[in-house]
Amino acid sequence: MGWQLEGVVSHEGYVVAYVNRDWVPAPVKGCPIVGGWPVVVVPSRAGGFPLRELGSRVEDGESRIEGLTLVAAGCDCGWRSTRVQLAQAMAWSPARMERVEAVEAALHAAWVEHVEQGSAQRLAVDMALERGTGGERR
Ligand SMILES: [Zn+2]
Predict the structure, then answer these.
(1) This prediction's pTM
(2) Are 92 and 37 in contact (CB under 8 A)?
């Protein structure tokens, strides 16, 4: 369940994490199991870019992934916030980020701002279209 705003159906927000594009989680035999999932730790950021979003490969859904330090707020509409480098790593259990409240509050705030700006832009477009008809103005 992501972030939602009352009365807004076209946006649902969540935390997204980034890993190196070519990296695929591969549990090793005998690795720890947490919450029923084999634990895989993201390698250090040597190489860095290009990146991909965690969850974009099927294999991402088969492990608990620890050591995530690059995150952003994301939205169903495709919007992404600026990426944030974390001092304290986050973990991912298939299909959801573990909650780290301090970070999540800031990302949530960025997402709310995105939704509100989007709504303001739509309103401006609606008003422009209305004016463009040349008909009555309300
Ligand atoms: Zn959105």
Answers:
(1) 0.79
(2) no
Cα–Cα distance measured from residue 91 to residue 66, given in angstroms and rounded to the nearest whole number: 4
pLDDT at 122: 67
- Name the residue ranges covered by the structural domains of the chain: 13-132
Contact call for residues 37 and 60 (beta carbons, < 8 A) = no
What pLDDT is recorded for position 83? Answer: 92
Kindly tell me the burial class for residue 84, based on how many C-beta atoms sit within 10 Å of its own C-beta (0-12, 13-18, 19 or more).
middle
The alpha carbon of 4 and the centre of ligand 1 are apart by a number of angstroms equal to: 10
Distance 70 CA to ligand 1 centre (A): 20
18 C-alpha vs ligand 1 centroid, how far in Å? 19
Question: What is the per-residue pLDDT across 68-119, written as a single tens digit (0 to 9) for each?
Answer: 999 999 999 999 999 998 888 889 888 677 877 778 889 999 999 999 988 7
Q: Which residues contact 96 (CB under 8 A, 6 or more apart)?
A: none
How far is the centre of ligand 1, averaged over its atoms, from the C-alpha of 41 (Å)? 30
5 Cα: distance to centroid of ligand 1 (angstroms): 11
